[in-house]
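Usage

Read records sequentially. Each one opens with the input sequence:
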Amino acid sequence: MSLAKCICLLLLLSVSPEAYSGGLRRQMPRRACDFVNSIGVNTHFGYYDTQYGLYEEVLRPRLLELGVKHIRDGTFNADVARKYREVGKSGIRLLLITSAERVAEQAEAIGPMLWGVEAVNEPDGRGGGWVGAARQAQRLLYETVKADASMRDVAVVGLSLANIKDSPARLGDMSQWMDYGGMHPYAAGQYPSRHWGWGMPMDAALREARRVSGERPLLVTECGYHNKEHNPNHPGVSEHAAAIYHLHLFFIYFNQGVERCYKYELLDLKRDEAMTDMECHFGLVRADGSVKESYTAIRNLLRILDDDDAECRCRPLAVEVVAPEGVAVRTTLLQKGDGRWYLALLRECEAYDLTRMEDVRVEPVDVVVRTGRRLEARRYMPNKSEDVTADYGRTDRFTVPLGAEVQIVELGR
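and closes with the structure output:
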């Protein structure tokens, strides 16, 4: 096993410095409920010849246990609509891939669990003449939804493209026909901030997406890792590495202002022990119904940060994070309605070696967290458990042994 090598930098993201208290930066958190709502998952309710056909046995119980509040799907019939409504009773909302011709009928059948709609998925993968057809489909969908009073609360999401490097310039600005932009930045086995698809780093991919969506809020409607490790054109990673990367990915997207990202996808489609088809290995749940490490990590993360208080008024916190030289750490500061802060610590390093096709052993380093006053401090490791990993008691300084896994520090009065 090789050791992770990290660049020498300490990055503090998703925080707004307001003032300084001693050597500490006073930072404004974001609401924990907004972070929880930023995580969704793709499903295929109508794929009856796959594991999705096991609705009662696998699909419904695994989806509800996972705890996500948003799904994205493009299948529809009367049976599927019934199932959408059923999971909607648990607070799940749907982003539906549809068309102007069908949207009114579908919205009526699905009811209030329908959060939003989008037109053609990855239209640039459908051959010549796609630009004109895609622009027309998007415009007609937007105009149809906005002209119907019964769909006044339904959001219209812009087109997500397969080639996020070249296709946005060809499609052009369509921001007038959407409420949210969309994009598919697959990391292709790399650390989430370093590769957003087609060899592009994060900033470049976001700039290209803005060619289509302008200043509209942005959704990542597909993202994530698959587990077909030997797959040169779109490399996969181990289940263990994917569980590490997926949690990093959610925080990185959130820090970049992405409104919501939908992991692709909930279930592995079919059994493929020989690992011949990448498309059968994107799921959080294996084809036999058992859960992967990514499923458990995401479920734990959502349970740790879950908060129903949408009226939470965030208050700044004086906090400092100090890492050893040569270790890069990203942070996200959140707050719940009861006043507790949650500081996420992400060490920027590779968890998987794409050349050797093996996990990278990342030795923990001591990262010091200081606060401007003494607070009750507890630490969570969602890759391991939803329960407290360490209780520091009441303190203004403590040390976190930070490896590749995301760690969450709870700070309360």
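Summary fields computed downstream for this record:
- The radius of gyration is 21 Å.
- Residues 1-22 have pLDDT under 50 and may be disordered.
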